[in-house]
Amino acid sequence: MLLCSNKKQTTMSKRLDIKHLEPEAYNIMLSFEKYLSKINLTKAHKNLIKVRASQLNGCSYCLDMHTKEARADGESEQRLYLVSAWRDTSFFSEEEQAILAVTEEVTFIHQRLSEATYQRAVKSLGEKYLAQVMIAVIVINAWNRIGVATEMQPA
Fold first, then answer.
1. Number of structural domains, the chain?
2. 15, part of any domain
3. What confidence tens digit (pLDDT) does each residue in 92-135 have?
4. Which distant-in-sequence residues (6+ apart) come within 8 Å of 67 by Cβ?
């Protein structure tokens, strides 16, 4: 769960705290997160989505949080180190590669989700699981935008 912490280095100005300024919207985000805990995505898949999207978006707060969660859920240090280079290793299954490709393309949605990536994901994951992957990617991207825009920092 995302908790707001706007600790800054002394050279940064303090940004607004959405959790306190817009609690209704923040609670909707928490509801999305609660929904994700009920769907069929494995913890490993959720963690890969959260880590990769947070890397792509440059959200240090979320990246710190979700790598810690992934380790607590049993993810190996080696795989976490290699998430950004997933195409260049054999450490990720076909399903995980499809999930990481969808995560990247949905995160960079202005470049579109390619037909090749979509078809690969449907073949590897099935439509229902892919729909859940897409929802998870959308949710972490929303959290990342809150974290980056408000310059949230890891504790």
1. 1
2. no
3. 999 999 999 999 999 999 999 999 999 999 999 999 999 999 99
4. 51, 80
